[in-house]
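Materials and Methods. Structural model of RNA polymerase sigma factor SigZ. The 181-residue sequence of RNA polymerase sigma factor SigZ from Polaribacter sejongensis was retrieved and submitted for structure prediction as follows.
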Amino acid sequence: MNTEIIHVWNYMNGRLTNFVNGKVKNPELTKDIVQDVFLKAFIKFDSLKNKEKLVSWIYQITRNEIISHFRKLKFETSSDNIEAEDYANDSLTSELSHCISPFIDSLPEKYKQAIILADIENIPQKEIAERLNISYSGAKSRVQRGRELLKSSYDQCCEISTDVYGDVIDYKEKKCNPSCD
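The predicted structure was written out as C-alpha cells:
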C-alpha cells in the first residue's frame, strides 16, 4: 500500500467530504462519491506522472465523479432555479465590486493598471506585459503585488468569505477602522 497517498487521503478526506456534500447535498451520497474517489485515486496512483500535483489530481477525480453522478441521474435543473441563482450571484458581485473600487483606486498607478487589466478586464498576463511594455515575469509580479496590496487594504475594513474556488460567497464591513467608508 502506498503510504504517500494514504497520508494525503487522511489529510484531505474531511475537505473532500465537505466539497462533495456542498455539491450533492446528501450525506450518504457524499460518502459513496468520496469512497469512489479514493478507490480511483488509489488504483490509478501509478499513472500520475507528477506526484507534486497529487492534491489537484484528487480534486479533478472528485469533480469528475460528481459530474458522473449527475449524468447517471440525468440531473436537470429548471430554468427558474438557474435564473434565480444567477441573479443572486450577480447582485453580490456588483455590490462587492462597488465596495472594492475605492480600494483599487487607492493603489499606486502601476498596480492599479495591472489589477484592472488582469482581474476586471480578464486580460491574460502575457498580453498585459505587451500592453504595459514590460516583461512577462514583471507583469506577473505586478499583478501579484497589486493583489497583495489590495487584499491588505480591504482586510482592514472588510471580511470576505470565499468558497473553495475563491468565489465570493459573503462579505461584511468590520467597522473597526474609522478611515473606512
